[in-house]
Write a structure and sequence with these properties.
By secondary structure, the chain is of the alpha+beta class. It is built from three helices and twelve strands; from the N terminus they run αββββββαββββββα.
Length: 169
């Protein structure tokens, strides 16, 4: 395969609603038709998953980027729902409701929590490097396996959660 030129490498193909149609394949995968070209199995990625969840969505095959959705809200509701469903799978992020226990040892913290998706146990290494505090006061924790967990409001979190996170805030 020939390497792309600089212009080709930096040229962004913005996907527009009038030239792009998303669909579900019989196997349950997300497909897209762009300017008449059919891509039967695609992946969706947020370019800015923390600050701009509905802007700059990368649409890709396993080998190449097809294009970028500049603003997901420009797409019709049924198209938006298909894309959001795929994004939810990729960016699955249970909301922590309460903590049964949180233990720290040798730079690791061991979390036993109740989430909106059931009970979970996970481990966070070096909380300061694996915690994102959003401007609205919510927090995203990333565990050692790359999974994300959401704390809606640190001020309303239970005592165990506040006690450990206050050390890092």
């Amino acid at each position: 395969m020939m390497e792309p030129s600089i212009k080709e490498a930096v040229d962004i193909n913005y996907l527009r609603p009038d030239k792009t149609k998303f669909y579900k394949t019989p196997g349950g995968f997300l497909g897209v038709i762009v300017d008449g070209k059919d891509y039967k199995r695609i992946e969706t990625y947020r370019c800015f998953p923390i600050k701009n969840e509905n802007k700059y969505i990368s649409i890709r095959t396993f080998e190449e980027e097809i294009g970028i959705i500049e603003d997901l809200n420009e797409f019709p509701p049924e198209q938006r729902e298909l894309i959001e469903e795929e994004l939810e799978k990729r960016y699955f992020m249970p909301k922590i409701l309460s903590a049964k226990s949180i233990k720290e040892e040798f730079g690791y913290s061991y979390w036993d929590v109740t989430t909106d998706r059931g009970d979970r146990n996970f481990t966070v290494h070096d909380i300061s490097s694996n915690m994102i505090v959003k401007p609205d006061g919510s927090i995203i924790l990333m565990d050692i396996d790359g999974n994300r967990y959401f704390i809606e409001d640190i001020e309303k979190a239970d005592d165990k959660i506040r006690k450990i996170l206050d050390l890092w805030l």
